[in-house]
Amino acid sequence: MKLVPESFRPGLVALLAIIVASTTLQKGEVSSATAAASECSIAVVLVYHRFGPMVTDSMTVTTPVFAWQMKYLHDNGYNVVPLGDVVKFVSGRGSLPPHAVAITADDGHRTVFTEMKPLVERYRIPVTLFIYPSAISNASYAMTWEQLAELKATGLFSIESHTYWHPNFRTEKKRLAPDEYRNFVATQLEKSRAILERKFSSKVDMLAWPFGIYDDELIRAASKAGYIAAFSIDRRNALPSGNVMAIPRYIVTNHDTGNAFANLVSGASAERAKQPSGADNPY
């Protein structure tokens, strides 16, 4: 084997240094490109209502279908993120991991406790519940305050507002005089928040619009009442620099299995046919 002459060694060392430096730079460029490519450009927010062994209305997702959906997210690399992270993302104050999905459930139906809770605990995923307090421990379909407290104690469920008794603001605006309507809206927004904060000793500053109804007047009232974010049931993906007081969500139905659910959580179904109207929701 021929050895490199001693006179050539300094040049060879310099050449090797250049090669190493170039390779390191290329790796750095690739890493930066990979990081940029992996940045999440959308978030998909899902909203559930009721669960059970069979479909009883358009808002019911059977427990086996919900179990399949959660397993699909787990097995296919989806990152289920806290809803507060989506708020920061939409307002331009934070980023999200790739394939970000947030899960919410409206109304406080008792099956959230009996059917949803075991699967949430199995997969250790964060869920935000939007509650209207008038139903809790009162309506036959609703959870009790004790059940809500048990959900919150898991550390997986957070509790936010769905107004005080889930009114149809469009109907109430037609029925009431302007001043009466403004007072009605303020009561619905403020009373719900005050009760939930007192019950759970935690801040409540997010709102789900009942029936997905919102407008500029309602948004101003919600901001005045102390809400920093609100959620609709518009069938769209959540995007950076969007309206933080009308962050869109997808209502999940029992038909969302297989490719339908895959398209939903990937954000590919944003331009597809509209989902069932929020007005179909009796609660």
Structural summary, described in words:
The protein has nine helices and ten strands. 43% of the residues lie in helices and 13% in strands. Helix 2 runs parallel beside helix 4 and helix 6 (169-175) packs antiparallel against helix 7 (178-200). It has helices at residues 9-38, 63-75, 83-90, 110-123, 145-153, 169-175, 178-200, 216-224, 258-266; strands at 44-48, 50-52, 60-62, 79-80, 100-106, 127-131, 157-161, 206-208, 229-231, 250-251. The protein has one domain (41-280): Alpha-Beta Barrel (TIM Barrel). The strands form three sheets. Strands 1, 4, 5, 6, 7 and 10 form a six-stranded parallel beta sheet that branches. A two-stranded parallel ribbon has the order 2-3. The chain has a two-stranded parallel ribbon with strand order 8-9. Strand 5, helix 4 and strand 6 form a beta-alpha-beta unit. The longest helix is centred in the N-terminal third of the chain and has 30 residues, at 9-38. Residues 1-38 and 272-283 have low confidence and may be disordered. It is α/β, with parallel strands linked by helices.
